[in-house]
Write a structure and sequence with these properties.
This protein has three domains: 79 residues, Roll (Archaeosine Trna-guanine Transglycosylase, Chain: A, domain 4), CATH 2.30.130.110; 125 residues, Ribose 5-phosphate Isomerase B, Chain: A; 228 residues. Helices cover 28% and strands 20% of the residues. The chain contains 13 helices and 23 strands. The radius of gyration is 23 Å and the shape is globular.
């Protein structure tokens, strides 16, 4: 097993692939450097002397500057390094757009909806429009599991605390997000559950939802019936009758939409799991499929990886607006734009936001960025898309689902049990995590750091697993029934 990786020939640091003892020697790219101290896994070692205020180069980019002189072989982290980032940036469009060589689409066993869309699951969803009926929704799901038979893959609800006492933008985002979930193709049928006196009225929801098939979407307002459980049972029986009419069939992978997310990142995220997902993204896009990259704050400092890949100037301007708009969001709330990474990220070896972002955007591979979409909006352009959303795991994974992701690839160096409404596959950045938390992890990208598989080979393995999951194989989170949502909130509560 190798001790270090020197990611880019321009880098003046190497990353420890496992815990490094003092005296361990790095040899490569014409350099021989001994570790001057113990260095934790995922952390950086200087390969050359760096003066105070000098730039620390990783991934071929500056990820910050030193706050004290650093000798070759020293550990570089928060004690001697800081970010270069500040506020908004003016960008210019200097395109470098390279389309991947087309690949023949592979297939999976999915569902064909009557509107022509593909699906990877055939579930019944109960969508509360207001938090007041959360427990009603949960009891309806518990009491009606006998309806999960035949082609029906499950009966679930996604509770939340909103839908009332919200105004303006917040109210609109809740309405938009819940309507988007109602339209999701993985839901063979949906029961929309309301109380009756909330801000999010039935009329508003219908206007947001637009055209719908009344065989597929049912509505129940609890205040309007004597017994909401009896009425709910009748409607769920109708949902089951409709959803049960679908069956799996062979579909093209070109119809898949895959969300890409990271959480609990560490110093290996940008070296193993994220590049593997990036290579997978390129492969799926080459087959005619679609991928979605979000977590806008974790693009800050890594825009150079993305902006030049916008397919045209219109998409470029949308990307600039999204990134600077999110910085405005921080500033409006008197928050530091670059108050990131998290304590867990730092423990895992990530020092600055540039360090985190350069690793995060590796999930986007190298394919052109075909479109930039807003929160609650669907993917309409095949290929790689950027989605407006925060870094928060629950909020961004929910936004990916609402955008139409059939499943989500979630890379992690620390581990998390969370699952979104769409099947959520956890990819470990390192083998110790995959071994320790095997009940959470679906795929071990740590084999790249171990020298057992190349990034290309691991991406091929991941493609195989994605098609299995798309065909019905349960993720670890699905096995445990771990599914929830979180809605992006920005305003006051009345």
């Amino acid at each position: 097993m190798p001790d270090f990786i020197h990611i880019n020939p321009l880098d003046n640091v190497a990353v420890a692939l496992h815990p490094i003892a003092k005296g361990t020697v790095f040899t490569g790219d014409g350099l021989t450097v001994a570790a001057a101290m113990d260095i934790p896994q995922g952390h950086k070692m200087a390969l050359r002397p760096i003066e105070e205020g000098g730039q620390v180069i990783k991934y071929g980019f500056s990820i910050g500057h030193t706050t004290a002189p650093v000798a070759a072989g020293e550990w570089i982290h928060t004690h001697n390094m800081a970010t270069n980032l500040s506020g908004e940036i003016e960008y210019s469009y200097d395109p470098h757009v390279v389309f991947p060589e087309p690949l023949a689409p592979r297939t999976f066993q999915g569902y064909r909806r009557e509107d022509g869309r593909a699906a990877t699951r055939n579930e019944i969803w109960v969508i509360p429009t207001v938090g007041c009926v959360n427990d009603v929704a949960k009891k309806l799901v518990r009491d009606n599991q006998d309806l999960v038979t035949g082609a029906i893959d499950g009966l679930y609800t996604f509770t939340h605390p909103f839908g009332c006492s919200q105004t303006g933008h917040d109210h609109a985002q809740t309405r938009k997000l819940l309507a988007a979930l109602t339209r999701h193709p993985n839901a063979g049928a949906v029961l929309v559950l309301s109380l009756g006196c909330e801000n999010l009225t039935h009329e508003q929801f219908l206007a947001e939802l637009g055209d719908y098939d009344p065989r597929r979407v049912k509505f129940l307002t609890c205040q309007e019936v004597p017994d909401e459980f009896e009425a709910g049972r009748r409607l769920l029986e109708e949902c089951a009758q409709y959803a049960g009419s679908f069956s799996r069939q062979e579909l093209s992978a070109a119809e898949l939409v895959v969300g890409m997310k990271c959480g609990g990142s560490d110093g290996l995220s940008g070296i193993t799991a994220n590049p593997v997902v990036g290579r997978f993204s390129d492969m799926l896009c080459a087959m005619g499929g679609s991928t979605v990259l979000t977590e806008v704050p974790e693009m800050f400092g890594a825009e150079g990886f993305l902006m030049a890949r916008c397919v045209d100037e219109t998409v470029f301007k949308k990307a600039v607006s999204m990134i600077n708009g999110f910085k405005d969001y921080f500033i409006r709330h008197n928050e530091v734009v670059y108050d990131n990474p998290s304590p867990g990220n730092k423990q895992g070896g990530i020092t600055t936001l540039e360090d985190k972002s350069c690793g995060c955007v590796q999930k986007g591979g190298s394919a052109p960025i075909m479109d930039v979409i807003g929160y609650g909006e669907p993917v309409t352009t095949r290929g790689l898309n950027m989605l407006y959303g925060p870094g928060n795991d629950l909020v961004s994974a929910t936004a990916l689902t609402a955008a139409g992701a059939h499943l989500i690839l979630f890379t992690t160096g620390r581990g998390t049990p969370f699952g979104a409404p769409a099947p959520t596959m956890k990819l470990a950045t390192n083998t110790p995590l995959a071994t320790k938390k095997s009940a959470w992890i679906d795929f071990n990208a740590g084999v790249v750091a171990d020298g057992q598989r190349t990034i290309d080979e691991a991406a091929g393995d991941l493609m195989d697993l994605v098609l299995e999951v798309a065909s019905g194989k349960h993720t670890r989170a699905e096995e445990r029934g771990f599914r929830e949502i979180s809605i992006f909130k920005d305003g006051v509560v009345l």
